[in-house]
Amino acid sequence: MKTRGEFAESDNPDTIIGYGVSVEGTLQTAGDIQINGYFKGKLITRGDVVIGEHGQVDANINAENVYIAGEVTGNVNAIDKLEILETGKVDGNISSTALVIESGGVLKGSSTMRDTEDTKPAVDPTYEVEEAKKASEEEAVKV
Q1: Total-model pTM
Q2: Contact status, residue 129 vs residue 136, Cβ threshold 8 Å
């Protein structure tokens, strides 16, 4: 997770909703979003979303990675990783490529894992595998 100093860098359009702040609407950005207050609406980013321990979100979330230490009511779609920390609670359906739910984390809903086969590099078989394959093919031809 990012530090407050990293969020303050002007060359990266990151957004923080602070503790005690309440925001409603659609929040769409290319940078990271950290919510320590209350947000209601819709969150869309190509970056990461961090819901702080005191954060409360009543929204659908679409992001690259999502880290939840607070409460989320809504569906969460993480392109890569979704992590529900020990204090995190999600009431909604989730989808991601990788999922981590720490002990104490709560998910009330269903989860869908996206297949990563398309993104994995092709692996060439080893010499031993090729030799065993040839031997079994030769046995099949003899029968």
Answers
A1: 0.73
A2: no
